[in-house]
Amino acid sequence: MSGKSIQGRDSKKAPQLSLKEKRAAKREKNAPAEFIKPRKGAKG
């Protein structure tokens, strides 16, 4: 095989952020809080 190191399936990897978490973090960084509005009809 090529010189790539092959990791076992159960080898420990650094936990990755899920796509949802990445998106949420990006959204928080980019959008100031005053732009985030509740949906129409959502009271609370």
Average pLDDT, to the nearest integer?
A: 70
- The number of distinct helices, counting runs of at least 4 residues, comes to 1
Low-confidence stretches: none
Largest sheet, in brief, is:
none
Shape: elongated
Total count of strands: 0
Radius of gyration: 20 Å
Estimated helix fraction? 25-40%
Strand residue percentage: under 5%
Question: How would you characterize this protein structure?
Answer:
The chain has one helix spanning 19-30. By secondary structure, the chain is mainly alpha-helical. Residues 1-44 are annotated as: Disordered.
Quick synopsis:
The chain is an all-alpha fold and 44 residues long.
Task: Give a topology summary.
Blueprint: H1 19-30
Biased composition (Basic and acidic residues): 7-31
Region (Disordered): 1-44
